[in-house]
């Protein structure tokens, strides 16, 4: 993976997908096959039923190992698990039995020498190592290597603390089969209990092995595991193509080729399709601004789009659009009175006092009786103080505001601003005007 490769989502954020995976076509058919085999085993007597149960166990584990292996290699949308494997995995279930037998034998020996408590501690440690052993078996198909303490420790250290969470999830899943079977046994006909047992066993086995495979894929960089499908390709394969990005890329390519009219047509079509979308309108605005001969088209689009920007709180982009209009039409004023105050406030905050002053000039004459007039007066006083350093004129504006609109919130703010000017004048040793 490159430095800019997207991060693989952690396994704990994908638990739902692991439960859904066995319900896709091929795993579901496999689970149904396990159910049928278990149903047949429940119908026969010893020793035929024992043979069928053994075949079922081997078949379930063998399929689980193939799911684990191919998931670890990045085949998250795999549809060929049953017939495709890097090393076949034919004997992996038997090697798993050997590992379990060796572990239980060691625990029994420790129990005879050091007592049951030491054996229980060793058994718990064996349980913690079993997932790592299973993952190594799936990757290497080597019994000795999967039991090697250095290899086991390297895998656990590569995953880190999330390995303990993985073990906890696997422990819960291993008990889920029996718990769910117990819940459903009372409502399922007795003749189908064997089928249900086999189906649920296959289902939970596939979920567990899918989880282990995904954990290996998540940490394949730390583990030095070469994967077939990197997450860059994975994200591309999983996510549907984004038509918005496709059109943006198409427009950019047309610009590079000098096909300006076609690029503008693509951008304009995007705006027609998504008239309220910020990125589409911004792309069209900047394109019209950059292409020679498109001034009138830019002005027409900008004048229509500007009020919408102020309504959705995008004043920073509104300033960009407004200043682009002023470059070609210096006397332009928005026709909507409600757009003036937020735009002027944003211009003042951006330290563009001249633009704010131009915007609010003669607001009360252009929009007589408008509800924003007191706030515009207050903004004008702030402009006089902060940008013109004309406190005397600012006081006159504040006095007019308090006299004409005494009940407005702006009048109360004007009184506080007046008091602040008085304190500043007193501190400077002057007299209030």
Fraction of helical residues: over 70%
Coarse structural class:
mainly alpha
Mean pLDDT: 82
User: Which of globular, elongated, flat, extended, rod-shaped describes the shape?
Assistant: elongated
Tell me about the biggest sheet?
Answer: none
Q: What Rg is obtained from the alpha carbons, in whole angstroms?
A: 36 Å
Task: Show unreliable segments.
Answer: 1-5, 83-88, 235-239
Count of individual helical segments: 22
Question: How far apart, in Å, are the first and last alpha carbons?
Answer: 69 Å
H/E order of the elements? Answer: HHHHHHHHHHHHHHHHHHHHHH
Number of strands: 0
| Strand portion | under 5%
Description of the molecule:
- The chain has a domain at 11-238.
- It contains 22 helices and no strands.
- Helix 8 (162-184) packs antiparallel against helix 9 (193-218) and helix 20 runs parallel beside helix 22 (409-427).
- It has helices at 15-20, 25-43, 48-72, 92-114, 116-140, 143-146, 149-159, 162-184, 193-218, 220-223, 231-238, 243-256, 260-273, 278-290, 295-311, 315-328, 340-349, 353-360, 363-366, 373-386, 391-404, 409-427.
- With 433 residues, the protein is an all-alpha fold.
- The radius of gyration is 36 Å and the shape is elongated.
